[in-house]
Amino acid sequence: MQGATFGEVFAVKEFRVLFGSFALLVGGDSIKMLALSVLVYARTGSAGLSAAAYMAGWLPFIVGGLLLLSLADRLPPRALMVTGEVVRAVTCLLLAFGGLPVWAMLALVLVTGLFTPVFFAARAAMLPDVLPGDAFVLGRSVLNVASASAQIAGLAAGGAFLAVAGPSGALATTAGLAAVAAVVLRAGLPYRPARGAARAGAVRQTLRVNRRLLVDGRVRGLLLAGWLPCVCLAGAEAMVVPYLGGQGKAGVVLAAAAGGMAVGEFAVGRFAAPGLRERLSFPLAVLLGVPWVGFALGPGIVWAAVLAAVATAGLSYQLGLQRRFVESVPEEVRGQAFGLQSSGLMTGQAAGAALVGALGELIAPGPAIAVAGGAGILVALALAGALRPGGVREAAPRL
Fold first, then answer.
1. Residue 333: DSSP 8-state
2. How far is it, in rounded angstroms, from Cα 193 to Cα 80?
3. pTM of the predicted structure, to 2 decimals
4. Predicted confidence (pLDDT) per residue in 285-337, tens digit
5. Are 312 and 379 in contact (CB under 8 A)?
6. Could you list the residue ranges that cross the membrane (predicted)?
7. CA gyration radius, the chain
């Protein structure tokens, strides 16, 4: 199996377009949700509503992922991605200048967010088309690093915009970034026809294909391998703020976690050959949980940051799953398969944060983080068959 290089990946114009628009999307969304949370809190004084506003952008992944994902294969991908950016721009402008009451703002974010999984799925499914073979895996690695970097930059920029222009100005900035991304996508990507045909209503087809994907042992194993270790990771990270007792200290640890993820993704993507990358999936998934167990000893901020960085470096285990996942699903439903993968990940992370948060209320944050780490180790061991190449050999489903 011959490996690609980062230079070959960035030499592809369509990937550069996807990369640039993705960075704008992630950074803009970070600014949007921070600004919306601040705006809701300023109007209501309610910490609960402010937190709900911050999470509102992710909740629609549950419903959209269950009911609408077939649209990612039934419609041309460029049109879907451009539409997603336009919807995001209009939504931000309405939030900033529409004079909407708080309930209407939250409803707007929830309703427009229902289609976010579809827009994400169209983007993810196009990547194997523009980067065939091992180049696709490196492309995913680059996008993962870009996601972590854009989130950090977006939160930092969001804070600056909030200080200078207030929440409305920050939301307007996000609208501008979305408009730029829409232009970049429209001008930089060629037209591609829809991947699959409409065989039923969108909801019915989504439910049918999701069911068939989950019934297939190989696909189900790879999905669970991508979801469950990250559920435990999200639970551990959700306890960092209460563990350290302050946003400033927690920010250092969470930034170290983002840096560890970026380093791990780059190192495994750059220096591990394709076969080795797939063999590393299992030990790296185990690594994802091990350092969090150390929080049972009550480490200070320095050691907490080191442990978090080492743990999140294990997220590069997912690179070894990508080729097998693409090969396991029929091409005509690839968009929905990637959408199911991302929707399940978002939903699972929210559930993991909630469960470990509840545990932290009972036994204190440090021990709860350690429990999440231990659960991550057990999950990786249970999923060893799916994490190891050749561990599950069922045929891909016929849909």
1. G
2. 11
3. 0.81
4. 999 999 999 999 999 989 999 999 999 999 999 999 988 999 999 888 888 99
5. no
6. 17-40, 52-72, 103-122, 142-164, 170-189, 221-244, 250-268, 280-297, 369-387
7. 20
